[in-house]
Amino acid sequence: AQMAEHGAAIAEARAVTVEALGAVLADQLEGPFARAGLSLTGWTGGNLAGELSRGRWRDAAAGRTLAGPHRSDLAVTHLAKNQPAGRCSTGEQKALLLAIILAHADLVAARAGRRPILLLDEVAAHLDPLRRAALFERLEAGGGQVWMTGVERALFNGVGDATWLAVRDGGIAPS
After folding, report:
1. Mean pLDDT across the stretch 43-60?
2. pTM across the whole model
3. Within 13 A of 169's CA, how many CA atoms are on the CB side?
4. In order of start, what are the domains of the chain with their CATH numbers?
5. What percent of the chain has pLDDT over 70?
C-alpha cells in the first residue's frame, strides 16, 4: 500500500511539473530554439494499488512490474513542425532539449527564488553559430552559475565572463 501511495504521488508530481514546464515553454517567444510541446504517455494514473494487485501474477511471469508511474514517458514535440522529437534532426533535437532545459531553469528560479546551477555537457556541439551565440547570450542574461564542457575551445567563442579550465593528465588547471 505504501509503494502505491508513493507511486501515485510521484505520478501526480510528474504531471504537475510537465504541465508547469509546458506553460513556461508556451510563453516563450519564437527564437533560435525550437518551441517544444510536452506530454506524458504510457501509464496515466488511476488506482495504482488495485492495478498492482490485479497484475501481480502477470508481473511475476514478466519478471517486472508492468503498470505504474515508471511506465510513463515524456513525449516532446517540435511544435512548428508538429513532429515528434525522435523524427527531428540532431540539431533540432538539441535545440528542443535546450529550450526545455532553459525553461526548466526559469521554472526552478521562479519557484526557488534563485537560479539553479546548470551543467551542460558538449552543449555547443551540433549548434550552428547563430544558436550558439543566442545560447551564450541567454545563459549570461539569466544569471546563475553555468558549467559547460566541450573538446573544441573554438565552439565557445562568444562566451562572456568565464573561467576556463582544462582537464589534462588526470588533473584540472586554468587554461
Report:
1. 81
2. 0.84
3. 1
4. 1-114 (1.20.1050.90), 117-175 (3.40.50.300)
5. 100
